[in-house]
Design goal:
The complex is a heterodimer of chains A (599) and B (252). Chain A is of the alpha+beta class and 599 residues long. Chain A is 56% helix and 10% strand. Chain A has four domains: 133 residues, Acyl-CoA dehydrogenase/oxidase, N-terminal domain (Butyryl-Coa Dehydrogenase, subunit A, domain 1); 101 residues, Butyryl-CoA Dehydrogenase, subunit A, domain 2, CATH 2.40.110.10; 155 residues, Butyryl-CoA Dehydrogenase, subunit A, domain 3 (Up-down Bundle), CATH 1.20.140; 171 residues, Butyryl-CoA Dehydrogenase, subunit A, domain 3 (Up-down Bundle). Chain B has six helices and 13 strands. In chain B, helix 2 crosses helix 5. The chains are: A alpha+beta (599), B alpha/beta (252).
């Protein structure tokens, strides 16, 4: 079997460089670059989701885990769970774009999507990366086939975002054959249906270590299902360990280095969450549009009304932007991975290092995409009016299901802190030329009005605004560090504002690059790009204004606001006309599309 | 044994139909293998899995994009594919001339095709191919077995079900209920990449369609937006009956 299906290799970029480096369209991967096999895989996954998962949703939501298990087994048989598994263990070892694509297309049910993602991501990857040959031999094929379901147990009642703080302890038995684990885990996804758990504990209360524990091991008890706001068809239980006997050969990875497993896995979880949010949003918009086309008020289908069209356009433009940024980042990760030597003994370490390089992008995808999804499901619910508030329509469920995405895989607050913090750290280490870039922008803006960037093509105006946005981002980062210096990390609100600016700059640029790569062949895509650009720049300017208000006062503030106004000066786009045209194309197609003939 | 399984590319049933330039607009619409043909591909694969030595060839005729459904057939498990590439729209009679030639050059023993086109509803293709080849045909098949050059099975009639037996070569048309088509698995999608899709030009078949589609119109649902005043219930009922009988003509 061939190892990669990627026919397009994105330019090798470094994490965080989007703020200071300008890429050309041919440097990034876009959804339009999927090759024939990837498209076929996407189609098979969509078909499976529509024909097998959607009709089973009532059973899934009723926690009929037999139905979920059967679907997981089917997904395993089709090969969906083998994508990240090495060939020598019967896997397909395909690229990360394919893996993200499956996560995207399979995500039509929040509950099933969580079961699936927890299994293939945090469930299986620690074993893939850190397992001994014996451990992989024993467990991987069972997990890849969907015969067994995996679960990952890190969080505890008093250790969530601060995972290093776990209290579960492990002690070596007198005969040296077992570790005895004691403690209680909380919020464990898949716990109620899993056959294999990756559990984190501190050996002798100190050495943070991962253990593979089979269901049925003496001393391991799965607690009661939590009653959750959403994703009710997924399993979430506490895990109680009372002198749980784990054979020493089931220690995963090195003793005392369990934190590497715990943290490296998060980056993958985060970009996959971004991919899952796209699928969830696409499915929700389809529900909303279908309903709106049927619903008649004042003698017309409600899709004839401008405020309804606006919701449809906002949702579609959000999805378009999400596709652009998620596939761009995952494409960049693939480009980095493709340069590695697969036969090197430390290959899996290199893989993690390469992915860690994009930690800032992964965090951005996580918080930004979960909030995009939140807006889409809210619009879909609103399109349904009162019917959106009752359980008969899927809008209500999608609205509840979306909410968890802002919490797990690191809360959106934690991910905002990581985003800005990571950039600062990289800058201080000299690994990202942020400080010279900030200095250059500071000098430039202090020197007075400069020339505005000019560009050609249908997105010329957006190009110019994007250039200003990057300058504004650098300017604000400079202003904030001038004020707070090394204390900036403690200023969470300011860090959050910078994270919002960074996220929108990355998304904005991805949207522009994706659309330019289509070379103006697609009228609808251009409209969605322009539409999203408006929102993006509004978020950026709002964050910048709040930030300046918080870091300066008096004359200093007035000077900075002069620069702010100079950098944010632009003519408003006719968002109303764009929104109507986008909505018309989406309503005509009855679903999200980039291919509609917008007029 | 060599099986030809004919696959057409049609718009997904969930897509909305739009007319542009006097034709159904396919740009940007989701196109899939005609479900009726999918049963044929699946049946060919099942015949192979029943232990027969079978070579399964998927045949598609149409523009470049038809390659997508041929790839699907290959990913499902067909051994190779033949794509007769043309932008000319062919009616079932013209199509049958191309297929008959392929059947002869490939020395096929069995041809499977959908009992009815899911887009234009023609049921003519299977019959026309059988006629050109001088082969028997069994239509609307719901069960099929092949043993020692004899095909046995069942097919639907208007009033019930008939069982049949026929010597190969034969044309069999397929329908819902015959089987449950499989999804292509990821390993098979990757394997299909290396399978052959032979590209033929329509010119080499010297076939031109006799029927040309000169225009299309889509059915559209329109509301009459009539509101009846219900203050006098019996008058309203009479008015409703009158409208249903004379305007909508839904009751006699």
């Amino acid at each position: 079997m061939s190892t990669a299906v990627a026919s397009f290799i994105a330019k090798r970029t470094t994490g965080g460089s989007f703020l200071i480096e300008d890429l050309r369209p041919e440097d990034v991967f876009t959804p339009e670059d999927l090759n024939a096999e990837q498209q076929q895989i996407a189609q098979t996954t969509s078909q499976f989701a529509d024909e097998q998962i959607l009709p089973a949703i009532a059973e899934i939501e009723a926690k009929n885990f037999d139905v979920t298990r059967k679907l997981m087994k089917q997904a395993g048989d089709l090969g969906f769970m083998s994508v990240d598994v090495p060939e020598e263990y019967g896997g397909l070892e395909l690229d990360k774009i394919t893996s993200a694509l499956i996560t995207d297309k399979i995500s039509v049910s929040g509950s099933f999507s969580v079961t699936y993602s927890a299994h293939v991501g945090i469930g299986m990857l620690p074993l893939v990366w850190y397992g001994t040959p014996q451990q992989k031999e024993k467990y991987l094929s069972k997990l890849a086939s969907g015969e067994w379901i995996a679960s990952y147990a890190l969080s505890e009642a008093s250790a969530g975002s601060d995972a290093m703080n776990i209290r579960t302890r492990a002690t070596l038995s007198a005969d040296g054959a077992h570790y005895l684990l004691n403690g209680e885990k909380m919020w464990i996804s898949n716990a109620g249906m899993a056959s294999l758990f990756t559990v984190f504990a501190k050996i002798d209360g100190e050495k943070f270590t991962a253990f593979l524990i089979e269901a049925g091991t003496p001393g391991l008890t799965v607690g009661k299902e939590e009653h959750k706001l959403g994703i009710r068809g997924s399993s979430t239980c506490p895990l109680i360990l009372e002198n749980c006997q784990v054979p020493v050969e089931n220690v995963l990875g090195e003793i005392g280095k369990g934190h590497q497993i715990a943290f490296n896995i998060l980056n993958v979880g985060r970009y996959k969450l971004g991919a899952a949010a796209i699928g969830g949003a696409r499915n929700s918009l389809r529900d909303g549009v279908r309903y709106a086309k049927e619903r008649v008020a004042f003698g017309k289908p409600i899709t004839a009304f401008g405020l309804v069209q606006e919701k449809i356009a906002e949702s579609a433009a959000g999805i378009y932007a999400a596709e652009a940024v998620v596939y761009r980042v995952v494409g960049a990760i693939d480009a980095a991975l493709s340069a590695l030597d697969k036969s090197a003994p430390d290959y899996t370490q290199q893989v993690q290092k390469s992915i860690e390089e994009f930690a800032v992008e992964c965090s951005i995808l996580k918080f930004w995409a979960s909030e995009m999804l939140e807006r889409v499901v809210d619009h879909t619910l609103q399109l349904h009016g009162g019917y959106g508030y009752v359980e008969e329509f899927p809008a209500e469920r999608a609205y509840r299901d979306a909410r968890i995405n802002k919490i797990f895989e690191g809360t959106n607050e934690i991910n905002r802190m990581i985003t800005t913090g990571w950039m600062i750290k990289r800058a201080l280490q000299g690994r990202l030329a942020l400080l010279p870039a900030i200095k250059k922008v500071m000098d430039e803006v202090m020197a007075g009005p400069g020339e505005r960037n000019t560009a050609d093509g249908p997105l010329a105006e957006e190009r110019a605004i994007l250039a200003s946005a990057k300058k504004l981002g650098l300017f604000c980062a400079g202003a904030a560090s001038q004020k707070f210096g090394m204390e900036l990390g403690e200023q969470q609100e300011v860090m959050g504002m910078l994270a919002d600016m960074l996220a929108e700059i990355l998304v904005f640029e991805s949207v522009v690059l994706r659309t330019e790569k289509m070379q103006g062949r697609n009228g609808l895509a251009v409209k969605m790009a322009k539409y999203y650009a408006v929102r993006s720049f509004q978020v950026i300017t709002a964050a910048a204004e709040s930030l300046l208000g918080a870091v300066a006062e008096g004359d200093m503030l007035r000077t900075q606001l002069t620069i702010f106004r100079r950098l944010t000066k632009h003519e408003p786009t006719n968002k109303v006309a764009l929104g109507r045209a986008i909505a018309a194309a989406i309503v005509d197609a009855g679903r999200y599309t980039t291919q509609g003939s917008a007029t | 044994m060599r099986i030809l399984t004919l696959v057409r590319q049609v718009m997904d049933a969930q897509e909305s139909v739009r007319i542009a330039n006097n034709a159904v607009e396919l740009d940007g619409r989701k196109l899939v293998m005609d479900t009726m043909d999918e049963y044929g591909v699946e049946e060919a694969l099942r015949l192979r899995e029943s232990g027969l030595q079978v070579d399964v060839i998927a045949v598609g005729i149409g523009p470049a994009r038809v390659e997508d459904v041929l790839r699907t057939a290959l990913a499902m498990g067909a051994d190779r594919a033949i794509h007769v590439e043309t932008d000319t729209a062919l009616d079932p009679i013209a199509l049958s001339a191309v297929i008959a030639k392929i059947a002869q050059s490939e020395t096929a023993d069995l041809i499977l095709c959908g009992g009815q086109q899911s887009d234009w509803d023609s049921q003519g293709l299977g019959a026309a191919v059988a006629e050109r080849l001088g082969w028997p045909q069994a239509t609307w098949t719901r069960a099929l077995k092949v043993e020692a050059n004899i095909a046995t099975g069942q097919h639907d009639t208007d009033d019930g079900v008939e069982s049949f037996q026929v010597q190969l070569p034969v044309v069999i048309t397929t329908q819902q209920g015959l089987n449950e088509p499989r999804y292509p698995t990821l390993p098979n999608i990757m394997k299909a990449k290396r399978k052959e899709i032979r590209k033929d030009s329509l010119d080499s078949y010297a076939v031109t369609p006799k029927v040309k589609t000169t225009g299309v119109a889509a059915q559209s649902r329109q509301r009459l937006k009539k509101i009846m005043d219900g203050k006098d219930a019996s008058a309203a009922a009479a008015q409703l009956v009158h409208s249903l009988r004379n305007e909508a003509q839904v009751i006699q």
